[in-house]
Amino acid sequence: MTRTTRLVILAVAVLLLGGVGAGAVLYTAHRSGMRDQQQANGPTVLAGTVSLRPTTGRRLLVRNLAWGPHRDEIATVPADDPQGPRTASAVKCLRFHAAAGTGICLQAVHGALEDTYRAVVLDSHLHELHRFPAAGIPTRARVSPSGHLVAWTVFISGDSYAGTDFSTRTAIVDTRTWAIDDNLETFHIVKDGRPYRAADTNIWGVTFADDARFYATLATGGQTYLVRGDIAARTLTTLHRNVECPSLSPDGTRIAYKKRVKGVSPDAPWRLYVLDLRTMKETATAEHRNIDDQALWATDSTLVYALPGDYGSDLWTVPADGSGSARRLMTSALAPAYLG
Amino acid sequence: MYLADSRSTKAAVAPDTRPGRRPAAVPGTVLALGAVSLITDISSEMVTAVLPLYVVAGLGLSPLGFGFLDGINNGVGALVRLAGGHLADRGGRRHKVVAGLGYGLSALCKPLLLLAHTLPVISAVLAADRTGKGLRTAPRDAMISLATEPEHRGRAFGVHRAMDTTGALLGPLIAFAVLRATVDGYDAVFTVSGCVAVLGVLVLVLFVPGRIAPVAAPTSAVQLPQPPMPPRPVLRDALGLLRRPELRRLTVCATLLGLTTVSDSFLYLLLQREGDLPAHLFPLLPLGTAAVFLLLAFPLGALADRVGRRRLFLAGHGVLLLGYGLVLSPWHGAPAVVAVLVLHGAFYGATDGVLAAATAGAVPAQHQGAGQALVGTGQALARFACSLAFGAAWSLWGGRTALAVTAGALAVSAVVASFVLRTADEVPT
Predict the structure, then answer these.
(1) Domains within chain B, CATH numbers bracketed
(2) Which three-class secondary structure state does DSSP give residue A158?
(3) CA distance B346 to B348
(4) In a 3-state reduction of DSSP, which class is residue A135?
(5) Which residue of A has its CA nearest to B197?
(6) Is A292 on the interface with B (CB under 8 A)?
(7) Looking at the complex, does the CB of residue B243 fall below 8 Å from at least one CB of chain A?
(8) For residue range A280-318, what is the model confidence (pLDDT) as tens digits?
(9) Cα A267 from Cα B306, distance rounded (Å)
């Protein structure tokens, strides 16, 4: 083969491969563009005012995933009519939570070189109070019942000796002082009654009891633990094994969580459980599918959580005491929060 | 009796100087292989850059604690690398074929990602991708050695590593440009990555000569030369290379120093915690190292040709030791972090390609693949062992003390290595 032949082959290949690549980009961009069109049979979503101190009864706030111009915006529905028309706020968040007039919104910032992320604390009118850079891809967000503290967890990759592994960073901010603890891994860990440290610790899924105590997941040595965190003492104390993404009930007596169960498919290992903190008794809920979310307590007896759906994810609900059965609460929604 | 050793290897290796051509400092074959690596790294780093986002945001999965078969991967990767080097040397030089298989396998994995929607499947595809990487590394380095005049190998490997790193830095930029143009179109990223990977294989097929022949013995494609070794060598022969004192010394030193080289991730983790670096700056740390490596790979490779590769390899570890000292020192803040990254990048510039160049000088031409694989595998396995030990030490004593202990061990290893390697250095006179 002469040099010219080889160069011609290369040029042809570059054109062909370039064509395939460009075609894929154009097709995918077109497909993505469809998501800005209102979907048939989708919920009605209208622009409006969303408040974190609702005056018209109890409201459910979600990240709206329904196709159309308000996709990914925080939207609200009456708590007793979740299938009803949604009021969209124009504020876009990947993850969101709110309580007592304070909101935490985790957003992506599309930079020229790569995506970065930020955590934005919102006031009751969803106006930005303060923003913090976040270290990676948002996954969990929570506000304390008083609205004073906010916490979030992000995934970062490549932060492990073994290479492609993932790890987490969890931060807590006091909205009264704007003081931030940007890595809970620096807290002192007390595991099974003894001080503990390891390079492989990961902490995620904060759920607040009050402005002094919280619960979260600690992972180390291939095992997950429910930990109780003390903000003033900067300690994390293990309480129970095999608990991920805890969510404390409003009365503070139970934790809803993801439990990794044995004998199921390794890519769908989690089931929704409830742990009684007084007796440490575990109760399986009637939701038998794999769940990968930090559940939310709608009331002291009902849980809400996200499952994959046609447009990303749907919200489902199930009684917390193991009775009844799972029921779809609303389609095309994620990251719920009840207010009022 | 070993006096002649370093001389004899020098005579056995063959520069790529076809009749009528002036021997170039960096031969076309090396540039072609550099281009293949650059293109392939764009492709693979495109995937690496978006994969976490794809898994978490695209698929909505929680990848924590999944492990991605990394432990197994490291072991299998080492074996594949040895096999790749050995196969490439077998029955005449089939470096290009084996390297091509490696590049091809990785290219094949990119479209497979389009079909992978669960963590076990994604993990399996990544494992296959890495198998391809393991397979091609040694034959590629062997081809670089064979194509280059012995006295210019440091420079040649430097050029190759700089091109390789350029690809690694470009990949994420292209990936995020595609992601932006398509609004979270991960499929498009994987498709484009696949196309880029195919292009890399094509450049290899078209522009890297199939037989990198010695000048003294030009061979035609039909007429197979009788290699001075048995026609079907077994893996034992590859390991038998360790009977060559020079290669043995190099392997022992690379392994010894690898055992005391803290993995990048641990170093970044410590740098962040000790230096109170804001968490969101963490993803920038590897970029800093890569940028310095890119800038220094060529000049340090050329320097290695002048002052001696083993000497520079050792000096590189001295630089790393300085970096560890800086992490442990009370000097914190942004300038300290930048200084550590500069030292860390310089360490790679002074050791990565330079070790391959030093290895090339210690192995006869017909065993280049196996020789490169042996040294590289020893180093990789040692680094993995160090990671496991370092993780355990961190649990026992905390990260700071673990680094201090490792730094002490690195100093001892470097002194031992300097005695072991002192015996014969191949500084051109």
Answers:
(1) 2-12+24-207 (1.20.1250.20), 237-422 (1.20.1250.20)
(2) coil
(3) 5
(4) coil
(5) A17
(6) yes
(7) no
(8) 999 999 999 999 999 999 999 999 999 998 888 999 999
(9) 54
